[in-house]
Amino acid sequence: MKEVTQELLDFAMQTKFEDLPATVIHESKRIILDSIAVALAGLSIDKGKIMVNLARRLGGPPEASILGTGDRLSCANAALANGELMHAMEYDNIMYPLTHVTPFVLAAPLAVAESLRSSGKELILATALAHEIPTRVAMGMDGWRSYIAEGPDAGKFVSSAFERPVVMGYGMNMFGGTVGAGRLLGLDRNQMANDLGIAGYIAPVPTSGKWGRTRKVGMAKFAPPGWMSHAEVTAAFLAEMGYTGDQTVLDGEHGFWRFSGSTAWNPDEVTRKLGEEWRFPNGTWYKKYPSGGIIHGALSCFNKIIEQNNLLPEDIDEVAVWPEHPHSIEMERFRAKEIDSEIDAQFNTAYEVAAIAYRIPFDRWQNLDTIRNPRIKQFMQKVNSYIHPQFSKAAGERKLLYRVARVEVKAKGKTFAEEGIWYKGRLFPDENFPKESQQTDEELISKFRFHAAQILTSRQVDKVPQAILHLEEVGNTAELLQMVTRH
Fold it and tell me: What is the pLDDT of residue 436?
């Protein structure tokens, strides 16, 4: 019986574009479209600007582009900038169970594909592999959270970020981005095995637990997607050049799962129906708001209330919010009433409610002028958050995906309320979620057009989405990516 590393290696080496289900091809293209949109948006804030400037400083041969700019740098440095841009505004798509995957795994194959002038089919395959592999590795590790069903603490939701001495992080994404880059480079089986081994050893330490406990952690947030993307390119190039790695990196009692902080390892879950059933398309949803995903339901409820009732900020006396996840109460960054940075703005419930109340365009949500606006600061004091009582009930019934959000707004002498378990953009692998919750292709195109219009020409804005949604027909991805640069 093969070990996990070897089975994933077989999958990475043997899968061809023709093996990909239509749903995998389609979702891979949607991921690329959305990621370019949010990367262009990321150019507007310091987190993105600083990494772009660093990539420029590091330079290198003109192999690949920084999205939205006219810069062409080495593959590794272009990936450094683009990975950071994709996650700069907390606007990237979400995947079950890992949460954030794309900014950590797409920038490396994107840069390598451009440098090699790979076909659209090759980029789609690399993108699919880059997302499927870390998703499966994550399913073999513990979920870092549990629900207490019995005893004096019955009904309590427990997370390693707050309750247990367990670490958590995004290091497993390294296996995705570097495999995607490796396939594009045409690594042979031995080189790809070394690629995986190198990637596992240079993966970052798990920092999400610290992030969950500390309000002010800086621009790196819970993991550094730019640096990981740079490292993925580095691992693939090293393997191509003959540098060797641990070809059993995922296996045994001392494998990656252990040294990355998981308390359990279920290798059968990683490899079950590998290549037959693809995991990542079913758990992918796209953000409507540039903010932490665990409050999107509440933001949607609030937006619906004020739009349906034509409420202006001055009409509103109080806003009570029951977000869909208790983390948004447990973490101070979500419930603080004072913020002073773009990163604060991404995770603050009161601030984001205020931004919606004032109808602030998404591209200005993290603008320092908006953050410092006295009217926004004053409105934030009207917003209070509470843990929804139905969350524990749903958790106890093993229905953790049914995250109920509720908002009550006191205005004009009335109380307006809205509650729901789903909202636009959210789609988890559950047949009971309505299909209309998924963002359509047209909605993703609109998101791209809005952010691209700030940077690209109208011709580029018109052509790029259709080119990406027909990516399998593109013979040279370098020409496509050059359409997403400022001329």
Answer: 67
Radius of gyration of the chain (CA): 22
| Dist. CA 66–CA 114, nearest whole Å | 11
Residue 378: CB atoms within 10 Å: 11
The rounded percent of the chain whose pLDDT value lies above 90 is 75
Q: How far is CA 55 from CA 51, 61, 108, 202, in A?
A: 6, 12, 14, 20
264: exposed, middle or buried (Cβ count in 10 Å: 0-12, 13-18, 19+): exposed
Q: What angle do CA 154, 222, 85 make, to 5 degrees?
A: 140
Contact 283, 433 (CB under 8 A): no
pTM over 0.70: yes
Which helix (H) or strand (E) element contains residue 418?
strand 414-420
Q: What are phi and psi of 228, to 5 degrees?
A: -65, -40
Please give the angle made by the CA atoms of 135, 393 and 167, to the nearest 5 degrees: 40
Per mean pLDDT, which range of 1-15, 260-274, 418-432 is the poorest?
418-432
> What is the 8-class DSSP label of residue 194?
H
Asked if the model's pLDDT at residue 421 lies above 80, the reply is no
Residue 101 φ then ψ, to 5°: -130, -55
Structure tokens at 283: 């758990």
Say whether pLDDT at 89 is over 90: yes
Q: Are 104 and 170 in contact (CB under 8 A)?
A: yes
**CA atoms of 131 and 101, how far apart (whole Å):** 7
Helices of type H across 381-440: 389-396
For residue 202, pLDDT beyond 60:
yes
The distance of Cα 429 from the centroid of its chain, to the nearest Å, equals 17
Select from 376, 323, 375 the least CA-distant residue to 349.
323
The lowest-confidence range among 40-54, 109-123, 150-164 is 150-164
Strand partners, 256: none
The HSE-up count of residue 150 (CA atoms within 13 Å, CB side) is 0
156: pLDDT strictly greater than 60? no
SS3 277: coil
HSE-CB at 31 with a 13 A cutoff on CA atoms is 34
Give the pLDDT of residue 146.
55
Strand positions, DSSP E, 156-210: 157-159
| pLDDT value of position 307 | 97
Instruction: Read off the pLDDT band of 392 (50, 70, 90).
Output: low
Of the candidates 304, 305, 307, 301, the residue with the CA atom closest to the CA atom of residue 324:
301
Report the greatest alpha carbon distance in the chain. 72
